[in-house]
Design goal:
Length: about 625
């Protein structure tokens, strides 16, 4: 069992560990010279592991790095001082980080009389009231007698004996707090396993570099081991990296970790914080062993009288749903609060207070991953890749969730087969019942936004799927049922049967390339392709270039998605080329066609969206 010591500076945490284990956790020369703990210290017995954290307020960042929610807290309070400012702050930080079990050690009892001891007990009881330590046992210790140490030691061993090894289904993650080399072994990192399990010879990934490494050997709880589990303190001997590539704040993970600069939390304000919280106030952000500066953006509305806030970080953090972060005010250097991570994304949300965004966050804020899966599916917001990232689901776990229901992929959104049938029927019914359009020879047709009985997030994916299957057509920005009366001339029908599979790709070949493949004269082929374009089977986008309408729609969706996710709502030719895989020259042709349609507009080297593609 791992025990985190916490408490005010000079209240005897290091001396207490020495008395219980015989190990001096002050390993740095500066610590010994100054007589106070600056960095994390570690000590182990056969069944217990101790993390000694700094008590001085200047080293709060190191204190936060030593705490994980799986650990047992040992709050140390000196009898001569009683509870002090850092005692209260450490207690708040332990609570914010999700620690739920603990013990209280009253040290230096030999320095006070019985009346002072009684007063100190009352002060401690008052401070603990309403916290997770309210009913925690208190042990009185003194260097003058071993009885208190023995009673405390027996108590901690009893808890350790009852503790169950934590095995969760999340993907393995270890927060690095130290990195060093061992002669004959190589690079070693130490830290707390926050979730999952790791085994010898397993392939792992380093964040932030993304490098793939191999675990050569493991020490868990200071013992040689084949595996390490959630909650363990462990050391990993790694192959494939060097010491200068590793530092505190890095992560070793089973699958590649994506950094997130936007972290939405259920915010708990610290009772000791002397000011009200202000929107966009600058903060220090502490997540496991990582630190970033950032800004606090408070939601204007959240359910059940909760406070939600988006923490916009200057440096990307590798955090996930259910993690805990601590926030400190930059100006006051005081803990203002923290809380549980509800939702993460690579960049800041453009509109955090919209109903759509709050619905999305609410679907991730539910207690379990299974509930979140169901709620996202019901809302039409289930994106499997994003879901797996936010919940830190290993591939096997994601496959198990997918197998529970028969799923249909609509672009990047996933729905059940029943949902898909309902969406399809609703869409076709609404189009059939739409008013006739003069521009379409009196045929019933709709714009995408007119499908009011389909959730906004599912309208375009549903239309795209129906276009691809041929159940509907798109003309002049409208969606309509196919005109069964229309038929192609035999020679055009023969050409179309050959052309369609050749053009069914994200980068359409030029008509010159097609002429070579089909062994036809270019001029005659293009004349027939223009005839097919009049039948709305092809779209002419530029000299010698025709696209299938559904493929062009996919490209337009990619442009829209890129613009929506960019910080300034624009895209570049290079980004578009890299995202889609379309060659530069063709990418320019496509974007210039979009400019001509009024879908995009060029501004310098960038392009911005003017209006939805289906309205152009």
């Amino acid at each position: 069992m791992i025990i985190t010591l916490a408490g005010h500076v000079d209240h005897g945490k290091t001396s207490l560990v020495r008395a219980l284990t015989g190990v001096d956790t002050d390993r740095l020369a500066e610590e010994k010279a100054r007589g106070l703990t600056i960095d994390l210290g570690f000590a182990y017995t056969e069944h217990l592991g101790f993390v000694d954290v700094p008590g001085h307020q200047k080293f709060i960042h190191n204190m936060v790095a030593g705490v994980a929610s799986h650990q047992h807290a040992l709050l140390v309070i000196a009898a001569d001082d009683g509870p002090m400012p850092q005692t209260a702050e450490h207690l708040e930080i332990l609570t914010l980080l999700g620690v739920t079990t603990g013990t209280i050690a009253l040290t230096k009892c030999d320095l006070v009389d019985s009346q002072r001891l009684s007063t100190c007990r009352d002060e401690i009881a008052a401070l603990m009231r309403g916290t997770f330590l309210q009913d925690a046992p208190l042990f009185e210790t003194s260097p003058q007698g071993s009885a208190g140490y023995q009673a405390l030691n027996d108590h901690l061993h009893e808890i350790a004996a009852a503790e169950q090894t934590l095995i969760d289904e999340s993907s393995f993650r270890l927060a690095v707090d130290r990195a060093f080399t061992v002669k004959g072994a190589g690079v070693v990192v130490t830290g707390t396993v926050h979730c999952g399990a790791v085994a010898v010879d397993q392939q792992v990934t380093h964040f932030p570099s993304g490098k793939t490494l191999r675990v050569r050997s493991i020490r868990a709880q200071d013992q040689t081991a084949d595996r390490a589990y959630s909650g363990n303190r462990c050391a990993l001997n790694l192959v494939g990296t060097s010491l200068d590539e590793l530092k505190r704040g890095d992560w070793i993970t089973a699958k590649p970790a994506a950094g997130n600069r936007s972290v939405t939390i259920r915010l708990d304000q610290a009772a000791s914080f002397p000011r009200g919280l202000k929107h966009w106030m600058p903060v220090h952000v502490y997540h496991a062993t990582s630190h970033s500066t950032g800004r606090l953006a408070i939601f204007t509305d959240a359910p059940d009288d909760e406070v939600w806030a988006e923490v916009v970080c200057d440096d990307a953090l590798a955090c996930y749903r259910g993690d805990r972060i601590v926030l400190r005010d930059q100006a006051l250097d005081a803990t203002l609060g923290g809380g549980e991570v509800l939702y993460v994304r690579a960049e800041q949300a453009r509109r955090r207070n919209t109903v759509e965004h709050q619905t999305l966050v609410a679907a991730y804020a539910v207690p379990s991953m299974e509930q979140s899966f169901d709620q996202l599916m019901a809302a039409g917001e289930l994106r499997l890749e994003e879901f797996g990232h936010i919940w830190n689901v290993p591939e096997a776990g994601l496959n198990a969730l997918k197998q529970q229901q028969k799923l249909v992929a609509l672009d990047d959104v996933v729905v059940s087969e029943n949902q898909w049938q309902t969406l399809k029927d609703t869409c076709l019914r609404e189009i059939a019942a739409a008013p006739p359009k003069q521009t379409l020879q009196g045929q019933p047709a709709l714009h995408a936004q007119e499908l009011v009985n389909i959730p906004r997030s599912l309208r375009q994916p549903t239309l795209n799927a129906l276009l691809k299957s041929g159940d509907i057509e798109q003309k002049t920005g409208h969606y309509l049922l196919p005109n069964k009366k229309a038929s192609l001339a035999p020679e055009l029908a023969e050409l179309w049967a050959k052309l369609e599979p050749l053009l069914d790709q994200i980068q359409a070949p030029s008509s010159g390339d097609l002429a070579k493949q089909l062994n036809r004269p270019l001029a005659g082929l293009e004349k027939q392709m223009f005839a097919l374009a009049k039948e709305r089977l092809l779209t002419h986008i530029g000299t010698h270039r025709f696209y299938l309408p559904q493929r062009l729609l996919e490209v337009a969706d990619a442009v829209q998605s890129m613009a929506d996710s960019s910080a300034n709502g624009s895209i570049t030719v290079k980004a578009f080329r890299d995202q889609t895989g379309i060659g530069r020259n063709v990418a320019i042709e496509v974007l210039e066609y979009f400019d001509g349609r009024g879908f995009t507009k060029r501004q310098g080297n960038d392009r911005v969206i003017l209006r939805p593609f289906d309205e152009c």
